[in-house]
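Render this sequence as a predicted structure.
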Amino acid sequence: MSDLFEMLSTITRRRKAEAGSPFASVKATEKWLKNLHADSDYDAHHVLVEGLERFNAENEPATLGRMKSLMKLEEAGLPLQSRIIEQYVRNQAAFRLARQALWRESWVFWSMLAEAWLCMLKQAYRNPASAELKPFAAEMAARAVRYAGRVMRWDYHQARNPAASAWRRVHKIYRLIERDGFATQAVQIDGQSTHCAREYTLVVLMGLVHPLGYRAQEIESIAQLLERYEPLSLPATVPLRDVHTHLVDLSLSEGAAVLESEWVQGRRLRYFALGPLVDYLKSLDEAATEVDSGLTRQVASLIERGGIRRGRQRTNRFGRVWVAAGMEKILSALSHSDSAKGSPDLEPWMLRDESTEGMGFSLAESTALPHGRLVAVSWDPSENVWQLLAIRWDREEGGQHLVGTQRLSRHPKRVEVYFETEVQGVTREPTWAVFLPMTHTEQGVSNLLIPKTHYQLGAPLMLRDGDVVYRLRLGEVQEGHEGWLRVGMDVVGREQFVAAA
């Protein structure tokens, strides 16, 4: 009888395994890959894309075995993807419907790989299994950036600008991996040696070229030309005159721009020396590269001019403004209670210049102003019109202390937040927060500044603004500011305060 029960239990285990995930183990993944349709590359590719969609939808905890299964899917998918892209480029002159289907297949493939590797990287830092996954952080980050860049490139194929969230993603991944010292750790992808810094630079370069309106063959030719160029200039943290030509701000939702006169050093500013690349592109001829020499010269010109300008030009603007530095003083300033210019909570600062993205100040005395410190600025506090900015850099020059800030919101508002129900790990006590609305002309989304004691990813939070109560769901942390967190949010409901009470 015991043999019978043992046999039945074995059969049950086998049936559960068969009904479960085809990616439960490396062997299961290899078995699934052997059963891919072989009628055509397109059919096999489509099944593989569906497999990647299922892999991501399973939302299983990351493990070393699951990472190896993903690498098996990647290894099988890249050759198929290469052949699909060849068909896509070849079919541009005809077969409009087939061209669109091939574009979508490629775009979804890159998107699924980018999402899978980003989730794997996140869990390597957060989950209990991170001890076994952390040594592979460089592998994961390089792939996450590479495939996110491919998704952005495929947007160019459809004459679409990459979303601001796409730039935030690659900046955030690079910032994380650079912080931990893995940015230039060599990895193998598709049989080629690369690293995260190199993949990030290639994304930045395509952003500078900004090939909207280019034909598919031209976009892919440009990408291959940049990928083959050695030595590729990597991001540097210290600007060098006569060396660096371009600048990217890792705290913004955009790519790089020409450096011009912005010779400042900041914690999230990175510099590129693209002069040699521009000279190389100008020197190429059609016979040597199999690429139209007119196209290479055009690409060189686009990079040299700094890509698509994003209104970063600063205007000299002098005058005194009133500043509340630090969250305690900011909350006081926004509360209407201390609107007089003589308030001890406010300091007079001299404005030096201003752009659409921030302000520069000149202070007579050196003051301890950590990067990330929040400041509220007003020309006339009695009008109660404030802007909220974050300090990004400071330096001494000519006996003056210069400070540069990034604007986070033109209309910050003090609001009350609380949890309606018990949420584990956070306090239910009501507290003040600052709502940071974004105007329709600004890039980005509205955020919320809350104390660390009131944050938990995905938690439902109530926000009271006057007589209106909003039900929010807290999103990811955008940045920490000395005990406060700037977080994303989704509004899931709105009602009058009387009804809510």
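Summary. The CA atoms of residues 145 and 170 lie 6 Å apart. Confidence is low (pLDDT under 50) at residues 7-19, 308-312.
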